């Protein structure tokens, strides 16, 4: 990404907040291209804009997998609300934008306060990548992740929770649920197929975990978040 006479290579989970009027451009050098989302904040409240100014002028954020999950959920809601034509959508959109900004600012504070050594940081980051790549493995165990990065399971749990704010087991569940949401919205797979593709042992286990997290069954969640055809209001 190039902006304001500078450039920076983007990675999964990176977010930029760019003030209006700043020239910027994107170049993708991956053979298969990249996927990214753009959120245009119009008439952002002065008090919210000041939060970024008070953040030392730093508009770059790197989100953890958990924060990515929350961020993507909010993007889905923003997209749905912006085309839904529901009453008081402006108020709802403003509330969602505030939640997006809170996630960005808290993610930076969490990383600054984690107090991990550089080696611990690299170890947890390597574990996060491994978990992401094997999210569909229903036999994945936290002990195996710890062994993969070369440390004991108890020590791994301590530094992982300090870094993410969640236990590795809870984090893996959140990762699987977020991936399942992506598949529900961006593929035509059945709910059963989605369950197996995201590492849940059985359909029943998937539905129970999904409903506990969202309050909806996977099928109901899919129907509630699918964007209707242009010009058609959601039910």
Overview of this structure, please?
- This protein is mainly alpha-helical.
- It contains 10 helices and 5 strands.
- It has a 3-stranded antiparallel β-sheet with strand order 2-1-4, with no helix packed on it. It has a two-stranded antiparallel sheet with strand order 3-5.
- Strand 1 (2-3) and strand 2 form a beta hairpin.
- Helix 2 packs antiparallel against helix 3 (89-113) and helix 8 crosses helix 9.
- The relative contact order is 0.10.
- The mean pLDDT is 81.
Low-confidence spans = none
What is the ordering of alpha helices and beta strands?
Answer: EEEEHEHHHHHHHHH
Please give the radius of gyration in angstroms. Answer: 19 Å
Give the overall pLDDT as a whole number: 81
Keywords summarizing the entry:
235 residues; mainly alpha; Arc Repressor Mutant, subunit A; 2 domains; three-stranded antiparallel beta sheet; two-stranded antiparallel sheet; 10 helices; 5 strands
């Amino acid at each position: 990404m190039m902006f304001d006479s500078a450039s920076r290579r983007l990675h999964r989970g990176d977010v930029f907040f760019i003030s209006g009027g700043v020239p910027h451009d994107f170049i993708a050098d991956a053979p298969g291209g990249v996927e990214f989302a753009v959120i245009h904040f119009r008439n952002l409240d002065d008090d919210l804009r000041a939060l970024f100014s008070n953040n030392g002028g730093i508009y770059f954020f790197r989100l953890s997998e958990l924060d990515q999950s929350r961020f993507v959920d909010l993007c889905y809601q923003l997209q749905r609300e912006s085309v839904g034509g529901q009453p008081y959508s402006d108020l709802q959109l403003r509330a969602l934008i505030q939640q997006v900004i809170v996630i960005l600012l808290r993610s930076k504070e969490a990383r600054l306060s984690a107090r991990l050594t550089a080696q611990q940081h690299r170890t947890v980051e390597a574990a996060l990548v491994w978990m992401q790549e094997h999210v569909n493995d229903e036999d994945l165990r936290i002990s195996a992740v710890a062994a993969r990065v070369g440390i004991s399971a108890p020590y791994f749990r301590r530094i992982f929770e300090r870094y993410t704010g969640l236990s590795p087991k809870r984090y893996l569940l959140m990762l699987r649920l977020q991936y399942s949401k992506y598949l529900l919205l961006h593929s035509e797979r059945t709910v059963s197929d989605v369950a197996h593709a995201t590492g849940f042992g059985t359909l029943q286990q998937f539905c129970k975990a999904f409903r506990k997290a969202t309050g909806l069954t996977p099928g109901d969640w899919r129907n509630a978040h699918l964007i209707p055809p242009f010009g058609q209001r959601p039910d």
